[in-house]
Amino acid sequence: MIRQKWTRAWCCVFLCMLSSISMLPVNPVYGALAKKPVKPAVVSEEPSGISADAAVLMDVATGDLLFGKQPNKRRPPASTTKIMTAILGLELGRSDEVVTVSQKAAAVGEATLHLDPAEKINLYELITGALVRSGNDACVAIAEHIAGSEEQFVKLMNRKALALGAQNTHFENTNGLPLKEHYSTAYDLALIARHGLQIPQFASITRQKETKIHFLEPDVFMDLRNTNKLLWNYPYADGVKTGTTTAAGKCLVASATKDGRQLLVVVLNAPDRFGDAKKLLEWGFEKTETVRLFNAGQTIAEFPSIKESVQVFSRDPIDISISKVERKKVQTRIIWEKPANLPVQAGERLGHLEVWLEDQKVTSVPLLSEKEVVGDGSSLRRLFPFLQGK
């Protein structure tokens, strides 16, 4: 138990470090902290008739934004907040940890699992209850178990949001019940949900239409039915979370996978949230595509070394998601970051590849050396004349 608490404490410290990094200025040359642009991809025909006040459509694999309607407008996120609560519950806790429900957690109202004080349940079951049935009380129980209190857990939520690039998000609680300074944006929620979908347990929970959770004390089962109706009326739907309050209106974060490609939609204050989501997803599958520009390890260019040629590559595949009609407008630019006359180490970053669509930079990828080139010392002698004759 002591080791477990120390591990969790280090995880919390790491989140603090990540949040500090996310606020550092981005170097326009090295671009290590560069985020995907919030501006949607250029398209000749956008979906119309979207009822949502704010909406985005994102490709899950690439993170590219395909559609945006007021993507950065701050709005109450309602129960879509629970996406972040579940993420931290899964990342900072173990699924089989036993949670004892506190008096405070049991007293939370609105949508709940009707938890009672002193009930015992595994953490994974509690997270399932928060995501599938939208239990407000489950979120408080998760927070208290992970961080000792809901207040401390909320601090971790905000740090994690910054680490993921969600810079227009601020949480005040774990469940989305209305508070003045509790807000997010359609784009930020897409960033957070995209991260969640990369966690196998999270993805598995949110795609379930119906399930059961098992309480340990008392030994009972509870039937759950997912609040996301898109899982029933759209065959490709596979997540994520609904949210509704008077202040937020009807909200939905939803994902769908078709022919191996997964898209993510967020609609906030949407009178027809399921209709909006379905329309945007169908538009995305029909009108946009993911294009692979280079494979992982593929030679992309030759570094202009004076001594001998050095080929450069990308460690990961370079994929972009764009409108099908704009594919021919994609251009690439190589920016070298190191002088040609210096020694080169194998795997060293020598520059970066920029991908542009008209006047919009879509992404930037580091270019690495395929081999080592040892210098002859001439460059050092030019820089430091006193080395002549050495």
Summarize the helices and strands and which ones pair or pack.
Elements (H helix, E strand, L loop, with lengths): L1 H21 L31 E6 L5 E5 L12 H11 L5 E3 L2 H4 L13 E3 H10 L3 H12 L2 H14 L22 H12 L2 H7 L3 E8 L2 E6 L4 H4 L3 E9 L3 E10 L2 E8 L4 H15 E7 L4 E5 L6 E4 L4 E6 L6 E7 L12 E9 L2 E10 L8 H6 L7
Antiparallel strand pairs: 1-2, 1-9, 3-4, 4-5, 5-6, 7-8, 8-9, 10-13, 11-12, 12-16, 14-15, 15-16
Describe it for me?
The chain is an alpha+beta fold. It folds into two domains: 288 residues, 3-Layer(aba) Sandwich (Beta-lactamase); 75 residues, Peptidoglycan synthesis regulatory factor (PBP3), Domain 2. The chain is 30% helix and 27% strand. The strands form four sheets. It has a five-stranded antiparallel β-sheet with strand order 2-1-9-8-7, sandwiched between helices. Strands 11-12-16-15-14 form a five-stranded antiparallel β-sheet, with no helix packed on it. A hairpin with a 3-residue loop joins strand 7 and strand 8.
Uncertain parts: 18-38, 377-390
Radius of gyration, taken over Cα atoms and rounded to an integer in Å: 24 Å
Question: How many strands in all?
Answer: 16
CATH topology of the largest domain: Beta-lactamase
The structural class is alpha+beta
Alpha plus pi helix count: 11
Which bin fits the share of residues in helices? 25-40%
Oligomer category: single chain
Main β-sheet description: 5 strands, antiparallel
CATH architecture label of the largest domain: 3-Layer(aba) Sandwich
* Overall tally of domains: 2
CATH class of the largest domain: Alpha Beta
**Beta fraction:** 25-35%
**Gap from first CA to last CA:** 61 Å
**What letter string, H or E per element, gives the SSE order?**
HEEHEHEHHHHHEEHEEEHEEEEEEEH
Tell me, briefly, the overall form.
globular
- Find the CATH superfamily of the largest domain: DD-peptidase/beta-lactamase superfamily
Strand order of the largest sheet: 2-1-9-8-7
Overall mean pLDDT? 87
